[in-house]
């Protein structure tokens, strides 16, 4: 399964599973990171460690280490 840190800028995918510590997972859920939610990568920092995603109309920044633990799927998978 593919993780969120591997998608390309402009690519739209859906959240399948969040495998982060409960405190971080709950915060992401509050921000709209729910299973089945569409998410799009908007920007990567030059070093690739900071990522900006569009989720439910809001831009949310994540570290690559956290994005790596969010599993995704494409429509039709």
Give a verbal description of the structure.
It is a single chain. The chain is of the alpha+beta class. The protein has 2 helices and 6 strands. The chain has helices at 22-30, 64-67, and strands at 2-3, 12-18, 38-44, 50-55, 58-63, 70-73. The protein has a 6-stranded antiparallel beta sheet. Strand 3 and strand 4 (50-55) form a beta hairpin. The N and C termini lie close together (10 Å).
In short:
With 77 residues, this protein is an alpha+beta fold. The chain is 17% helix and 42% strand.
Element layout with pairings:
Layout: E1 2-3, E2 12-18, H1 22-30, E3 38-44, E4 50-55, E5 58-63, H2 64-67, E6 70-73
Shape: globular
Can you count the helices?
A: 2
Strand content: 35-45%
User: What is the average per-residue confidence, as pLDDT, rounded to a whole number?
Assistant: 95
- Beta strands, count: 6
Tell me the radius of gyration. Answer: 11 Å
**What structural category characterises the helix and strand content?**
alpha+beta
Please give the order of strands in the largest beta sheet: 1-6-2-3-4-5
| First-to-last CA distance | 10 Å
Output the helix-strand order.
Answer: EEHEEEHE
Quick one: biggest sheet? 6 strands, antiparallel
Stretches where pLDDT is under 50 for at least 5 consecutive residues are: none
Helicity, as a percent range = 10-25%
């Amino acid at each position: 399964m593919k993780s969120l840190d591997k998608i390309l800028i402009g690519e739209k995918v859906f959240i399948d599973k969040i495998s982060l510590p409960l405190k971080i997972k709950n915060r992401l859920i509050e921000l709209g990171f729910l299973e089945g939610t569409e998410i799009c990568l908007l920007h990567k920092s030059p070093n690739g460690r900071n990522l900006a995603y569009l989720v439910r109309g809001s831009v949310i920044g994540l570290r690559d280490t956290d994005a790596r633990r969010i599993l995704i799927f494409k429509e039709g998978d």
